[in-house]
From TrEMBL:
Coiled coil: none annotated. SUPFAM superfamilies: Voltage-gated potassium channels. Residues 32-90 form the Potassium channel domain. It is a multi-pass membrane protein. It comes from the Bacteria. It is found in: Membrane. GO terms for biological process: action potential. Keywords: Ion channel, Ion transport, Membrane, Transmembrane, Transmembrane helix, Transport. This is Voltage-gated potassium channel. InterPro entries: K_chnl_dom, VG_K_chnl. One of its GO terms (cellular component) is voltage-gated potassium channel complex. It comes from Sphingomonas prati. One of its GO terms (molecular function) is delayed rectifier potassium channel activity. The chain crosses the membrane at residues 21-39, 51-69, 75-94.
Amino acid sequence: MAGRRYAIRVKGIATNAIDDVAGLLTLYIGCIFVAAAVFAPTEGKPFREALWWAFVTAMTIGYGDIYPVTTTGRIAGIALMHIVPLFIIPLITARMASRLIVDSDAFTHTEQEEIKALLRRVDAKLDERPD
């Protein structure tokens, strides 16, 4: 039961994280820091260098000045190279684009309420009509 509650809570946090640009950027920075935190001890590098490696790897630049040689470091690199460009960047781009797209033909709330009221009246008139 506790596992189910935990899964639901994690799902809620993840959903909220991708709901806005700030959440997505937080998710991105979180991925960078987690990858750097894995990379630094497994590769015997200072955290500052690991952070540099994580940013360079996440952006798929890969200068080659720092690279993983351990299996764990390589797995962290592979995960980072796939998560950021395939999931996080498209989500950020989609969220930003959705804010730029404005539907000028959309009904306002007041207009929607008026339409619903008119439909109720039409429906009532149809019910009064003999078949």
